[in-house]
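Session log. Operator J.P. requested a structure for one protein chain; no other inputs attached. Running the standard single-chain path with token output.
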Amino acid sequence: MQSVSKEISRRNFYAFIWHASLLAVAKNFMDVDTVIPSMLINAGGTQIHVGILTAIMIGGSRFSQLLFAPAVSGASRKKPLLLGGISVRILSLAGTAFLFLGIQSFSPSVLITLIFIIISIFSVSGAFASLPFTDILGKSIREGQRKQFFSLRQIISSVGIFGSAFFVREVLSRHPYPDNYTRVFFFAAGFLFLASLGFWMLKEFIPQDYTPVKQSFRDVFIELKHNKRLQYFLISINTLGLGIGILPFVLLYSRGFRELSSQFIGNLLIAKTLGLILAGLWLFYRGGKVRYHRMMQSMVVLGILSVAIAWAFPGMTTSYILSLFAGGLFLSLYQIIQSGVLLEISSIHNRSLYTAIAGAGSILPVIFPLLGGALIGIIGFHFFFAIYVVLMATSVVFIQKLNCKK
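Structure written below.
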């Protein structure tokens, strides 16, 4: 099949880097592990609400990807779909800011309901946009540049996230509630809009011999039945994926030992961001020599540490900072693994379908936080964290079977 030219690949490389750079700044203003959960808690949310919201943000909306995948895979041009998805995402952030601007007009129950609705729209639009994003990324940047792109994106993103973390902390601490959250989400919408300009600069590459194939639910079962690597990949991201939703519960756990002040939230955000940066730097210099399955093995250790440190030393502020730092390292690796391994095991014809399967197939990361709030109320934090550690440890078996070559 015809491959993308060096010129187009280079242009798209920098367009994606532009998006990643500005998105990095926006991410801290809409951080799913600190800012959004603390927003919900301050609005009157309970541990049940935190569990539901975390499930929505992590992947509850990804089930909708199976509905979107046939339309996306059947479209010859994916760029308009990508721009549509990111635009809805921007509007949902602006809607959250306006919600807190008029917070006095709502009762706590109505406010929480509206938060759920807006964050659901935010999550679904992101899940939809990820389908054309992955497809365009896979065919518009040369294969030899992909790992370089992932590592460079991670470094630039991490630096941007680190710088904005201090800004977010200042906004949260200098302004009273709810004015601080109004400002935070206006900034989030603004920076995400600037990030979206990178997508407008993309030159989508469509091979002359490429014929879009509209795939159906039947194709999902066929792929799952015959592709063993896809099966092991799904199991791996289910167990490893628990780590992307555990940090809000570490934050909730800390509330039993200290106040969730804006300064404390800001410090945790900085610790997490520092982990993202250091992992990104390591991947940039070592990424070409380290195979994906080695990175996944490291993620198992980091995923366990992100809970174990705070769990072992609950009365120490430093323990929560170290837990968030380990969580940042984990999340940095997860972002690369999720994209890199998916591109390795898929092709130009089935990439949208595989992205949808990976999203909708991430069942445990959705169910675990959804049930987490109820489980904690029944069995307590100690047994909840123990279940998490055991499930995370089982990832090792399936990582070995997946055995990524690149």
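Operator note: Residues 108-140 form the longest helix (33 residues).
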